[in-house]
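Feature request disguised as a bug report, sorry. It would help if multi-protein outputs had a clear separator. Right now it looks like this:
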Amino acid sequence: MKSLPQSCEDCFKEYQAALEDLNNFAHRADFAKLTDSQSRELIMSFEVTHELALKVIQKYFEKQGKGPFSGSRDATIEAFHADLIDDGKVWLDMVIDRIQYNPVYPIDTQGKFLENIQKRYIPALGKFEETIDKILN
């Protein structure tokens, strides 16, 4: 049996739940003393939240008759132009940091990535939630 495609509103609810989980984890975490396991968990929570944000953007544009996009960077740029996000640089940095952070390779980007998640990305994801909530309601 085939399942129905998710609506923008359904994707947004999933995004809100993931953002709440990310915020809860970040608020109780001591970023200066994260274990490797906690660091990986925080990064994974961020990545899930970011993916869901991109899914909301995709569904929003599908509803508008736009897209598909060739990747997260193109969707991010279009979202900036449509005023869904207000700081395109931060959102593009999210994409770049996710590409650069790869625990398989020896380049140590985890510390900077965790700092960006805490200080730049979580606030930007929160602003995105507020913007989409206003648009959908």
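(second protein starts here, but nothing in the output says so)
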Amino acid sequence: MSTILLVDDEPELLDLYAEVLELMDHRVLRAHDGHEALEIAHARRPDLVVTDWQMPRMTGVELCQHLERDEELRDVPVIMHSAATDPHAPGVKAFLSKCAELAEFEEVVHRTLVDSGASPQGPPSLSDFSRSARETAWDSDCSCTLGP
């Protein structure tokens, strides 16, 4: 079981991503911005960080810069996700659009964990999700039409 720090200021996406990761049998730590994520990362040293790009107090890019400069955390792989284009931040192993299908999210998490040497888990099937998560999961009017 891997520990994944999930960082997003949108509660609905935080809940959805957390449910996906928990169904994949990962431990999920949640943060609402980069500042909170950095504190959690220091306290719990996750196996992977999945972060939004644009957040209050400290953006995902700023979080990546802090992680990269930290001796203890620089090797933690990061997946950046955004409704905007790929921001190219230090330490980012993969970029994922917020419009990505759940299967792509699962695959990117799995591949990143395998590449980092952590122990990945198997992906859930869509039927494992709660009804609200299935209905929320990347509707055609997803956040991709919003800004970063």
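Even a blank line would do. Unrelated, but nice: The two ends are 31 Å apart (CA to CA).
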